[in-house]
């Protein structure tokens, strides 16, 4: 059995060694933490914009998947029925850009549903975005919706959709008629299912229950696919979300259209 004196000397030596190593360990840990923080603030940022009469919850699955893929994500409610497209674009996109500037250092991407895509297009008519990355639009009424054409004079429709909803028709007075091509790599995902057969009846050609496939297309788009989803639920579909992540990472979708 070791003597008390030998045990005391051993304890003293061990204490000195640990004490001498502690600053190094702390410094190493601080260095790792610093590098991790630096990596975090250099990540790309994605601004999510929900559609008319929707909320941030509608985009929550997309948000979770993008965070899991390493992106900083801005996802907030905005008052989609309380102002015009131009006013919403100016206020809401500016807030998203400010948040990204404070929380990331990479490119700024956009993922939008329905009218959210029109807000991005409207904003980019008169504004430049530094480090603009890729844009994924889900079910965008890029040339308006015939549903609005048919219903915009109804008192209840106007009450429910507000000023912005009234601007989404297909005519020359619709907001989309005056929008010029925008910069950035654009990928568009449309659905070919409907949960609104009555509304689909109002739309010529193939549609997702609110928007025709032809209306969604843009001359400047880089890729376009059609998935088995409806306008109302396309942003909740797992396979659609996988395509969103793929486009943000690679600039193209992973699979061909389900409705080529």
UniProtKB/TrEMBL annotation:
Q: SUPFAM superfamilies in the record, alphabetically?
A: alpha/beta-Hydrolases
Q: GO molecular-function annotation terms?
A: hydrolase activity
Key words of the record: Hydrolase, Signal
User: Which residue range or ranges hold the AB hydrolase-1 domain?
Assistant: 46-158
**Gene3D superfamilies per the UniProt record, alphabetical:** alpha/beta hydrolase
| Origin superkingdom | Bacteria
Q: Which InterPro entries match?
A: AB_hydrolase_1, AB_hydrolase_fold
**Which range is the signal sequence, renumbered to this chain?**
1-29
Query: PANTHER family from the entry?
Result: SLL1969 PROTEIN
What this protein is called in its record is Alpha/beta fold hydrolase
